[in-house]
Amino acid sequence: MSLERIKYGVEYDPGRDEGGSSGVGWIVVAVLAVAAVSFAVTIARRISSSSADELEPPIVVDPSPPSAPQAQPGAVSPVPDVPPLEIDGLAKRPPKVRSLLLKLEDATKNSDLEMQISAIEQICALPAADSAQDIVSDLIPRLGCLNWSWLFDRHNPQWVREVVVKRGDSADRIAREHGCTLECMKLLNGWEDASRLVAGTRVKVMNHPVFTIVVYKRMKVVDLYLKGKLFKRYLLPDAADAGQCAPGVYKAPARPGSYLRRMGVELEGGDADELDMLVPAGAQMNVTS
Description:
Layout: E1 3-6, E2 9-12, H1 24-55, H2 95-109, H3 113-124, H4 133-152, E3 160-164, H5 171-177, H6 182-189, E4 202-206, E5 211-216, E6 221-226, E7 229-235, E8 248-251, H7 256-262, H8 271-278, E9 284-288
Parallel strand pairs: 5-9
Antiparallel strand pairs: 1-2, 3-4, 5-6, 6-7, 8-9
Helix pairs in contact: 2-3, 3-4, 7-8
């Protein structure tokens, strides 16, 4: 069918040949329509993306790691220097002692903390007849340095675990939930300020440590045990008088090092601060005559 414009309007022309019209025009129209629709969709997506960017600003992450605690006068050192190992007269010692000392020597060369600690513990546990009493007094301070390094430098998995911070958590709450002091948790993570925790991050905390403090008044030493093993020994000055601290079994209050000092047990240097930092309230404290 075709329409023909005449002088007074448009009317149907039955004599016009409809078959002569080409379909090319319709194809062009269809292509243009598709192109227009595609262009409109692209514009709409760009507008939507731009709006989303305005509503959700990009997350900015501070690339700088938390700063390590600065050394302060009298502050607790996280990793003390381990004194050099010196063993005299190795060939003259009993076979069992000699074997353990060689094990300790090899572990020292290989920087194997766990093996060094094990060897020292076994030497100190030997009966008097087989022991190396002349070097035990040197090995026990070494044991304390190794344990300290194993805790705060190597984060021994037997003592330390990682936990995920949840929304609303505070460092103090996490520490209390795991039987750890806040100061110990700060030292484990290298924090100066523990007031800002980010949900979803992992932090280190002591895993429910069982500390026991034993005061040997006559020997003038204070031994700190962790889960039944000697962790570190603190020496009392020769002039110290622990007379106010009566023999018995006590439940240690918060800041046990400061408590002992008030009771006349004068620990040297920053030893009282170390006990305050390590040992939470409620730990067992034994005082011997």
